[in-house]
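The instructor's notes for this session suggest beginning with a concrete chain rather than abstract definitions. Hand out the sequence below and ask the class to guess, before any prediction is shown, which regions might be ordered.
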Amino acid sequence: MKLRKIFAGMSALAIAATMAISASAEEYKAQIMIQTGAYSFRNAIQDDTFGGAATGKGIEGYDYNGKFICWSDDVATDWNTIEGNSPITFEDATITGDGTYTVKLLGDLTANSDALNILGVSTTLPRVDTNGEDEDPSLEAQKVVVTVDKATIDGADIEIPGEGKAVLDSETEGQLNVILANQWNDALGKAQLKQVPKESIEITFTVTGLDAYLNGDDEATTDDGTGAATDTTTTDTTDTTAATDNTAAATDDTTTTTTGTGTAATGNTTTGASAGLALAGLALAGAAVVVSKKR
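After discussion, reveal the predicted structure:
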């Protein structure tokens, strides 16, 4: 009877290990989205005309995925293919769990414009508010919360217009996009951002509540809306460069996808995969001990 209980316990450990490994396989995409005063742009991942979802479906089948686009003779054209333009590249992030990530634009846009119409972070993270819908327009009300920690242009802090803080893109359904500037948005003062990079734009953000969401924990955020997981036992910070279906990695090497640091907001630094393997190892070790004693 005792032996049966022991094996039942080992089965539970094996199931837990499988669940942990499965959770660690989830990956999400993040990238800078931008539009200059001259309407050159990199649109949101979800945009199926000029954005990340436009691969093979854009104008005349053109692939806009991962490229910075400008208008040349009224045709949307890859910025880097026009002679005389300073190269523009991107460093995207692969989100694997709660943690801190950075996305970048590298290059000189000062010859293109003296202002930005739109600047933000587009992601494939699930947009689900605490009521189980995607109707609440506030970042803090989401089960998975994206908090902008630092945003700079050429090393100088970005002065976010309007209320001075990033807002949720309420027009994107089902996935999370965060906006720092939008000249058509009331909360952002309907103002352009009067900073343009000569070298770089960097946006660092922290994701919280994702681990709890993936583990099926309905209480993915704390009562104060900070998004910190309330009962997260496994934090997935596995380093990987595998692309998702929505990846914006460019075929001409203009975009680099990197995995973020994955610094756990909860302080738990055990990766999902390693935790799962550790549990599986523990189950096997337990079996060996039981067999030994049975002899």
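Then share the key points. Residues 21-290 form one domain. The chain has one domain: 21-290.
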